[in-house]
Amino acid sequence: MSPLALDEDELVACVACGLCLPHCPTYRVTGLETASPRGRIAAMQAVQLGGAPMDATFERYMEECVQCRGCEPACPSSVQFGHLMEGAREALHDERRRERPWPRRLAEWLGLRLVLPRHWLLILLSIFAGVGQRLHLVPSRLGLPPISLRSLRSRLRAPAAAGTGDVYLFTGCVMDAWQRETHRAALRVMEAAGASPALAGSGSDCCGALHAHAGRMHEARRLARRVVASMPGDAPVVVDSAGCGAAMKGYGRLLGTPDAAAFAARVRDFSEWLIEQPDLALRPTGRAVIVQDACHLRHVQRAAPSVRTALAPAYRTVDTDDDGLCCGAGGAYSVLQPGLASEIRDRKVAAIRQAAGDDPAPVVVSANPGCAMHLAAAGLDVRHPADLLADALDD
């Protein structure tokens, strides 16, 4: 049996037509067939069906993928590239993790095994990092956003207790540590829309998206089961991180249980849920904002139009002309593949500058924290839809 163990029907569905190529950020940057969805699937087929080795070259081809899944909507054969890539990453994690450099193995163990599943530890380390930033002890090359100690000192509170509200807000791991004010803005907007939101109960430390991207599927499933148990009942689960929302909408497939499928059906992106609420009053600001479609909102959740609809009463939204091409953040991708991530981001920044026209300081709206941090590191002013909507509340 091949160590990849991919679904063979999905693996052979690609007809190598090439329509995915313009939508693949790594192919656009490198021009290499091996950096395209078609080339990566060919490599998977060679390993699973042709007996080729799962060697360092194969691993490089897989790891250079951003997992933006921009190829999927463009594919006339409906190839499930995300499923294939997750399966390939899982096999690589199982078979080749001991071959990886020890600093990477240590970083993954610390980040994915130790810190993210323990939210209290992430918050504690974030406080240390925030103090370090104030003392100029944290190197900028680490890519950490400015951490607000004031925000971390104040616990996030919701109007309703867990299990008693009519909607949940999932806060997760990194976003709650580094962008907690966005959660506060989301709660304000949800209340203004007439809802009584609650926060998830114990076990909602992390959704497992980063673990799944890294091929650590056993850990992703364990975290997913905890998240499902943390929000009982049938109330909608609102997620203001596009990457987390995409992962949670996939819990039915990840866990393979009726309870997980029922939970996944309750998950809604913040903007997706908001446009269904009739009672939100916003004041027109007259300001223009440039929309950066988070890949996991546009390509996986297929809910990107909801951002524009939610913002429309208060802002004029402007689109880029790059057909939603990835910004290069990709969860931990910008850390593991900094060269490719920077080249991909350069193209996105150029598209944003072009859309901005004569405006030297455009406001960019992004529904994913990773995208926001990655683009902010390039000097852009990036806001979450919840932050912009909270500014425009008619109160």
Commentary on this structure:
The chain has 23 helices and eight strands. It has three domains: 92 residues, Alpha-helical ferredoxin (Fumarate Reductase Iron-sulfur Protein, Chain B, domain 2), CATH 1.10.1060; 162 residues, no CATH class; 105 residues. The chain is an alpha/beta fold and 395 residues long. The protein has a four-stranded parallel beta sheet. A four-stranded parallel beta sheet has the order 6-5-7-8, with helices on both faces. The longest helix has 19 residues.
Brief account:
This protein is an alpha/beta fold.
Features:
about 400 residues; alpha/beta; Fumarate Reductase Iron-sulfur Protein, Chain B, domain 2; four-stranded parallel beta sheet; 23 helices; 8 strands; globular
